[in-house]
Automatic annotation (TrEMBL):
It comes from Cardiocondyla obscurior. InterPro entries: MCP_dom_sf, MCP_transmembrane. One of its GO terms (cellular component) is mitochondrial outer membrane. Belongs to the mitochondrial carrier (TC 2.A.29) family. It is a multi-pass membrane protein. SUPFAM superfamilies: Mitochondrial carrier. This is Mitochondrial carrier-like protein 2. It is found in: Mitochondrion outer membrane. It comes from the Eukaryota. Keywords: Membrane, Mitochondrion, Mitochondrion outer membrane, Repeat, Transmembrane, Transmembrane helix, Transport.
Length: 329
């Protein structure tokens, strides 16, 4: 009888798995899954970055739009990937993958830890939303948006140097350089070229764009779910839809950020004639806006040349020597 009681006590005293360890396992499995997806789709991201910084090695071809208007068609992302593979081989399509994966991992951990810290230090009673007052729901929404903005900003600041390294590794394709070959060596190269500030080239537009996406998607989701959509089954889809719309609207900030990360860094891609030397990100924004280039790379399948053109014998021809179109040598 005593033995049974002792065994029962032992069973009761067996420590259960802490919730934090389970959350940690879920977080790492999520990170591993995202890394796998990013690795598989990385060539598309690579082609997109080269398009964003204005490199177009394949000449546009005359075509017509759906409305019958003459236009110059640029190759899609898959044709671009074939071009990269032809010059650098299959492994060349994954240039910059290692710092990109490191950047994503650091960013995810920093974001989760910051958000966890903010939630612990601002305990709120979870009440049924239907019983809450309108002002209470509005306040909760604002608090959640603020927390998301802070955690995402911290994540970007911490991981941005690795993002710069990845972007410059990819930009080397334009001039065929090998200055940025390893993560550690790239840290030293950035310091030699641009000093400490080089690690945060393009940071400001990236932070502004990210914060704007969170604010716009958060406010629009709250407004739609509370004042427009009455069906509960439809409300879960609002957040993802509004995030997609907000990301599309704020896409120019990403283009400017990537251009500034490469600009005047000692690579051919960041110097004339491929790219002007910008004074700051506002100068870059103004220049790209003037040439209607703030959205380049947003469409990867149907792409049209929007730079300077001329009409010759009834056909549109791109004006060579432009900062946004350079024929391959």
């Amino acid at each position: 009888m005593r033995t049974g009681i002792r065994n029962e006590r032992r069973v009761r005293n067996v420590p259960s798995v802490p919730p934090k360890s389970k959350e940690s396992e879920v977080m790492w499995s999520d990170i591993a899954g995202r890394i796998l997806i990013n690795a598989i789709s990385y060539p598309i991201e690579y082609a997109k970055v080269l398009i964003q910084i204005g490199y177009e090695p394949i000449p546009p071809k005359p075509t017509v739009t759906l409305f019958g208007k003459p236009a110059l068609k640029l190759p899609n992302a898959f044709t671009y990937i074939k071009h990269i593979k032809k010059l650098d081989g299959l492994t060349g399509c994954y240039r910059g993958l290692v710092p990109k994966v490191c950047s994503y991992t650091v960013s995810t951990i920093a974001c989760d830890k910051t958000l966890e810290y903010l939630q612990v230090n601002s305990e709120e009673q979870n009440e049924d939303e239907e019983d809450e007052d309108e002002s209470v729901r509005r306040k909760k929404c604002i608090n959640e948006i603020i927390k998301d903005v802070i955690s995402r900003t911290v994540a970007i600041v911490v991981s941005h140097p690795l993002e710069v390294i990845s972007l410059r590794m990819m930009a080397q394709f334009v001039g065929g350089e090998t200055k940025y070959s390893s993560v550690f060596g790239s840290f030293l190269e950035i310091y030699r070229e641009n000093g400490i500030l080089g690690y945060y080239a393009g940071l400001i537009p990236r932070v502004i764009g990210s914060a704007a996406v969170i604010v716009l998607s958060g406010i629009s989701t709250y407004a739609i779910n509370n004042y427009i959509i009455q069906e509960p089954t439809m409300k879960p889809y609002t957040a993802s839809t509004m995030k997609f719309v907000a990301t599309t609207v704020m896409y120019p900030f990403l283009v400017v950020s990537h251009c500034m990360a490469v600009n005047n860094c000692g690579l051919v891609a960041g110097l004339p004639p491929y790219m002007p030397v910008y004074q700051n990100w506002l100068h870059c924004w103004s220049h790209l806006s003037t040439h209607n280039q703030l959205k380049r790379g947003s469409s990867l399948l149907w792409r049209y040349y929007t730079g300077p053109q001329m009409l010759l014998n009834g056909k549109l021809i791109p004006i060579m020597g432009d900062n946004f179109y350079q024929p391959s040598s």
